[in-house]
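Internal ticket - ligand job 352, nicotinamide-adenine-dinucleotide:
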Amino acid sequence: MLNVGIIGYGGMGRFHATELITKESEVNVCGFYDISPVRQELAQTDGYHKYSSYADLLSDPKVDVVLVATPNDFHKKCVQQALLSGKNVICEKPVCLSVADFDELTTLADKKHLRLFVHQNRRWDEDYLILQELFAEQVIGSLLRVESRVQGDHGVPSGWRQEKARGGGMVLDWGVHLLDQIVDLMGCSIKSVYASLSYALGYEVDDGCTAILEFENGKFVEMNVDTTNFIKQSRWYIKGTQGTIMLNDWDMEGAIVRQVAGWNSEEIGAIQAGQGLTRTLAPLSEGILEKRSFPKMSQKQVPSFYQNVIDVTQKNGKMRISYQEVRTVLKIMDAIFVSAEKNQVIQLSLQD
Ligand SMILES: NC(=O)c1ccc[n+]([C@@H]2O[C@H](COP(=O)([O-])OP(=O)(O)OC[C@H]3O[C@@H](n4cnc5c(N)ncnc54)[C@H](O)[C@@H]3O)[C@@H](O)[C@H]2O)c1
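stdout (structure tokens):
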């Protein structure tokens, strides 16, 4: 059994307890501490034990792992205290606000022979797991370009997410998830980053970001997080040498179009487009392309985030989200801010 003590019973702390952990037969919630009496009361109403302070939670010998689900600016301090108390830690994303802070935390974890897990949970999203399978099977041939985006239409949520010093803004909120998936999917080092940030709604934090990421294999990924889109673009748009994948959203509606026969360029006639003619954009004849709907998840069982925590802490397993991957994501986010400020391509060396 893995016993979890949770600091922060806000939206996500509560989601861990009532949704994620309840699905796990080998994970148990020992109790909560939240700085807000209202949230403490809610946790109690939900049936969880209330710790009187964080120190109280950390001194409970039953707690195997501390889940940090506070706003982003408290992560580093909460993680440090937990590690110093001899507890393994799960920290919500983004684990901290700089690469240097993360290095400090992992050094401390290593010194204490403890683990720091970062809840970059979008690796377990169904759309992403299916894409991984499609990539592995080379369903659309060799990869040409990936576009990954999430878009909303009502700005950055109120509260700490609108404050820069508290780790607000869309890059730190959703960017971290998309970057985590992209780094995992590309499976090679990042080479450069070019980004622009949007401040359209007048917050002190970014309300959107578009980043062009170049990887060592020469492939480019466009990442976009945005909050001013009354019509959303597709969640994923991926081009390969023999096909294209498009997925609209988490509803799993989308398509895979694959080339299944060759064509003769000379035989493609022009079509009228607007006030002109085009051969370049004329459609291919029937039978050259095959269209499939976006597939369902295969029956293959993927161990959950919490199963990975158990695997690592109790069975000497491997961390699904490695320190190196978390560090890379933090480095890319740093580069995004520098690139946007200087309007420059930032070359990345992951050695430093
Ligand atoms: N992985 C995901 O899918 C996902 C989704 C949403 C949020 N998050 C992350 O979860 C964390 C919390 O986000 P949220 O949406 O739950 O925020 P929230 O504002 O809803 O909740 C934060 C909670 O922490 C409490 N808190 C603040 N400071 C504290 C302190 N010093 N000690 C104890 N409690 C304190 C607040 O009272 C509040 O109840 C953030 O890091 C966020 O990025 C992750």
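Auto-summary: The domain at 2-119 is CATH 3.40.50.720 (Rossmann fold). Residues 129 and 300 are 10 Å apart (CA to CA).
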